[in-house]
Amino acid sequence: MENLKEIVKLLPGYNCKACGFKRCDLFAEKILEGENPENCPLLFKEEFKGNIEKIKEIASTLKPLEIKKTCASKTGLVGLLDGYEADFLLDPLPEEHSCRETLIILSKNPIKKGDHIKYRPLGCPIPHFAEIIDDAHGMYVVHLEGPCNRFNSEKIDYIEVGIALIAAFEGVYNGKTPEVGKTVKFIPTHCMMQKVHSGVVVEVEGNRVLIEGIDLKVW
User: Fold this and answer.
1) pLDDT above 90: residue 75
2) Residue 82: inside a domain, yes or no?
3) What pLDDT, on a 0 to 100 scale, did the predictor assign at position 111?
């Protein structure tokens, strides 16, 4: 377990999925089973120089093994930042790269569908970068653009809109089946901090779920 924690600390922590896994901690588990840490392209950036060698050194001292869940919780889904237990992971809808977020944006900067924006969700310390895929009556539905989108060669101009309120999440649940009207705790798989969010389920269709009243506080 200590070796797993050390490897997680040496990984970038962006949970960008470039390695093929949804979260850095899941990639760390696979490294202990023999996965090559060089499958993380961000480790080749200057700020992480030397981390690949350190990870390989840790992994080389162990025999390949089957790593158990990192937390003995009922679901096995635990926020990396806060340690809270989640009911399920929220994955993107089919053919989409992130969950859909519905935002309330108070900025006076004119924005519309197709624009790329930079904002900070109220209660979150991390700036977000996103593309607006729909807008109506002051509500904006966006797709998040993670580190890999921003590290590519394409230059994108982001409109600064300041603080935004997250009104809803929509995606595919992966875990405990949610019930309409019930408050749930979930982790959006695109969340870089893998923080547990909470909200009220307002619609379930198959494995697709719409959650409103989003809060970063978990009671």
Assistant:
1) no
2) no
3) 94
Q: Kindly give the pairing relationship between strand 139-144 and strand 100-105.
A: antiparallel
Same domain, 118 and 41: no
Cα-Cα-Cα-Cα dihedral sign, residues 57, 61, 67, 72? negative
Structural domain harbouring 16: 2-60
Q: Are 202 and 170 in contact (CB under 8 A)?
A: no
| DSSP per-residue codes, 87-151 | SEEEEPPTT-SS-EEEEEE---S---TT-EEEEEETT--S-EEEEEEEEETTEEEEEE--HHHHH
The tally of domains found in the chain comes to: 2
| Dist CA 196 CA 69 (whole Å) | 17
- Beta strands 159-175; 88-91: pairing state: antiparallel
Same domain, 148 and 188: yes
> What is the structure's pLDDT at 37?
92
* Cα Rg of the chain, angstroms: 18
- pLDDT band per the 50, 70, 90 thresholds, residue 149: low
- Count of CB atoms situated within 10 Å of the CB of 157: 7
